[in-house]
Amino acid sequence: MIRELLLIGVGGFFGAIFRYLISGIVPVKFGIPTGTLIVNLIGSFILGFLLYCSLFAPIPTEYKLLIGTGFCGALTTFSTFSYETFVLVDEGLLFKALLNILINVVGCLVMVYFGRVLALAIFR
After folding, report:
1. How many other C-beta atoms can be found within 10 angstroms of the C-beta atom of residue 109?
2. With helix as H, strand as E and coil as C, how does the chain read?
3. pTM of whole model > 0.70?
4. Segment 72-122, tens digit of pLDDT
5. Contact 89, 97 (CB under 8 A)
């Protein structure tokens, strides 16, 4: 159990740092918090790729914990996305809030799909 927790913690350490760096580098575009969007898109792609790969090749549980649960868990952020969307609503920017929701949800679903496509291309 300790080993699994450490793997998640190590992955989370790097995922959180990556998220901090990306969120700090990517400026807000068109009033949408794009740093959060970018990390959510990247994390969705990585998680989609990892989990679909595991359907075709044995991926050790340690990698799933390190990358999927730890890294992607810390990289992606539903709470920040929710907060930033709420701020847009609170500022009366309803269209931008809806656009932020649409881009994040649809974009992340598309990135999981691309991860799946890449996994299928490699393993089929």
Report:
1. 12
2. CHHHHHHHHHHHHHHHHHHHHHHHHCCCECCECHHHHHHHHHHHHHHHHHHHHHHHCCCCHHHHHHHHHHHHHHHCCHHHHHHHHHHHHHCCCHHHHHHHHHHHHHHHHHHHHHHHHHHHHHHC
3. yes
4. 999 998 888 898 999 999 999 999 999 999 999 999 999 999 999 999 999
5. yes
